[in-house]
């Protein structure tokens, strides 16, 4: 199957969202531009790292006095559910974040896993694959204005916090029926 590259140069929406109850949620990244809706599945920890790193980039850009990153009024908080149709194009293996100083945008790239990536991971290097290459991982590339990036970070923080509360003893997520806590010698907490 030929590789697919989804490029969103001016997305109207770039959000993370979930499907399912806490403890059984499936996490998605979704980009929307006009009639195009692309969703990719990823892990909760990937969403957390993406939001945290994106927030760090924005903070560092503000600290350096880069005007484009100084967002006075971010676009309204996006509380809407994920857009339909919700069909994951692929499962995300690798995420990259870069700052494009020529266009004053954050570029997020989500790549699927493929055999070449597994071999490169063993060799401790990430291969550069041209967009016109027929073989390689599927890619979603999104260019975000700083106000959209701030909105993504804020929504991601809320989505992550909406999960199961942590156990007061060990910090692991608590299920509604409790959990076997290692800090209480294996008793149900």
Notes on the protein architecture:
With 189 residues, this protein is an alpha/beta fold. The chain contains 3 helices and 7 strands; from the N terminus they run ββββαββαβα. Strands 1-7-6-5-4-3-2 form a 7-stranded mixed beta sheet. Strand 5 and strand 6 form a beta hairpin. Helix 1 (44-63) packs across helix 3. The model has no long low-confidence stretch (mean pLDDT 83).
Q: How many H/I helices? A: 3
What's the Cα radius of gyration?
A: 19 Å
Arithmetic mean pLDDT: 83
The shape, in one word, is globular
What can be said about the biggest beta sheet?
7 strands, mixed
SS content category: alpha/beta
SS elements, strand count:
7
Distance between the termini: 49 Å
Give the DSSP E fraction (strand runs of 2 or more residues). 25-35%
Describe this structure in a few short sentences.
Helices cover 23% and strands 28% of the residues.
Features:
189 residues, alpha/beta, seven-stranded mixed β-sheet, globular
Question: How is this fold's topology laid out?
Answer:
Layout: E1 5-8, E2 13-19, E3 26-33, E4 36-42, H1 44-63, E5 88-100, E6 105-112, H2 115-122, E7 139-144, H3 146-161
